[in-house]
Amino acid sequence: MYGGTLWTAAALFNIVWAHLRRAKLLDPGLGPVGTRAIGRRFALALVWIGSGIIVGAFVPIAGVAIIAAFLPAYYLPIRGEYGENDDTAEQPAV
To answer: Would you list the domain boundaries of the chain?
Structure first.
């Protein structure tokens, strides 16, 4: 039940994110690199949570462990999330 609710929330987030991205309603400072990186991370959640649901149907504690393991991954910074550009390295001021 919990896994299904979490998966549904992740799916709804992905739908909203896709709409915002297509409608160009995201902060322009985010840039295409950040937008893609964030989209990939949240799309990964569907697979990760889905696998936890499937495994959990047979081995409940393993399903809980898989679903719980993805939570710390979301505390890691996403490359480009704060408008960083991969093409330019930090250069000293002249």
So the answer is: 2-73
Burial label for 57, CB within 10 Å (0-12, 13-18, 19+), is exposed
Q: What is the pLDDT of residues 27-65, one digit of tens each?
A: 888 888 888 888 888 899 899 999 999 999 999 999 999
Q: What is the pTM of this model?
A: 0.72
Are the beta carbons of 46 and 7 closer than 8 angstroms?
A: yes
Q: How far is residue 35's CA from residue 43's CA, in Å, rounded to a whole number? A: 12
Taking Cα atoms as reference points, which of 7, 13, 19 lies closest to residue 57?
A: 7
* Token duo for residue 77: 């910074």
How many of the other CB atoms lie within 10 Å of CB of 11? 16
